[in-house]
Amino acid sequence: MPLAINSATKALAELLVGGKEYIALMHVHKDFELDDLNKTLKQFTGVISQLPPVRSNVKRQYRDREIYYLDVLEIEGNDVLFKVGVQSGTYIRKLISDIGEKLGTGAHMIELRRTKVSTLSEKSGLVTLQDLDDAVYFYQNEKDDRLLKKCIQNIEDALDFMPKVIVSDEAVDTVAHGSPVAVPGITGFNHFDKGDRIFISTLKGELIAIGNAVMSSDELLSAKGGIAVKNDTVIMKTGLYPAYHRQNQT
User: Fold this and answer.
1) How far apart are CA 223 and CA 217, in angstroms?
2) Which CATH class for the 19-117 domain?
3) CATH number of 162-243
């Protein structure tokens, strides 16, 4: 589970809407043929219609969700261990129940472990609470921050999947005060559509804020003025860049 500190907590919502990966253990209620299982799993790859379970935090109605991949890792008796990549909002317990129903045997979930959220995975700096506790101990008692640096990642790396708009140094503090991003202050960008969530960046790649695109990147190419991104989540503290410039001028 991704955890954040200080102002980075404001950006967690952006991570949670990204794709997720799970390792799940499914128990199939009756004996089955491997070929039948593979054919059934293939039917649950791609866009599926899923009814959330009775106990859920959303309105109980059918919703389309995409299953990016579903790979069997191991089978022992009637237990099937598999890896699945899904669109945010997909219920794995319900997915397993639906697979069992389609297979004609019934099935339920025994264990579940989330292994990836957006760009964060078990291979990209996963730490345990014990790791973090040890890191804090060494930092507080021995002034050694090496373990702490391994536990804490930059929010910029976690949000690398988002489309970006880069602004000039002169525009940074304005954006940090909550102002929208105007076309004249933009120095670079990559492809995005109108309405997309945008990572508003400094020239050095620092996250200033997150907002909604008012125009697409194609429209931005020919725009002479106007607002490109409406900023609604400020991450960077104000005053950092003016202080930086004053220091460079002395």
Assistant:
1) 10
2) alpha beta
3) 2.30.130.10
Query: What residues does each domain of the chain span?
Result: 19-117, 162-243
pLDDT exceeds 50 at position 37: yes
**Two tokens at 188?**
């670079």
E strand spans, the chain = 20-28, 46-50, 63-76, 79-86, 107-117, 120-121, 164-167, 181-182, 186-189, 197-201, 207-213, 227-234
What is the 8-class DSSP label of residue 34? H
With contact defined as beta carbons under 8 Å apart, do 48 and 70 qualify? Answer: no
Q: How many CB atoms lie within 10 A of CB 72?
A: 14
- The model's pLDDT over 164-215, given as tens digits with 9 standing for 90+, comes to 999 999 999 999 999 999 999 999 999 999 999 999 999 999 999 999 999 9
Average pLDDT of the residues of the chain:
89
Identity of the residue numbered 191: H
Residue-level pLDDT at 125: 66
For the chain, the first-to-last Cα distance in angstroms comes to 45
What tokens does 226 get? 């106007």
pTM reported for the whole predicted model? 0.69
